[in-house]
Amino acid sequence: MKLKGEQPEVDLVSCLDSSEVVTRYQSNDKPVPAGPDDGDRHKVLARMVFAPPAGQTTKVWFLVEEKALAGKC
Hints:
Layout: E1 9-17, E2 41-51, E3 60-68
Antiparallel strand pairs: 1-2, 2-3
């Protein structure tokens, strides 16, 4: 991807609901013991940049950063 010069960029802030997510061991399909409870909702940021892939002219959105955010959803 070429990111020289100005490119359209957007930050998406979302709240993910992980209440139905269960991590399981592949070998026996039993649930993995959970660590400390940090709630079911998690605030995250995804930074997207609109740019052409190397050697192409058609632009597409690229995820360039994702991270957890502090604060309540």
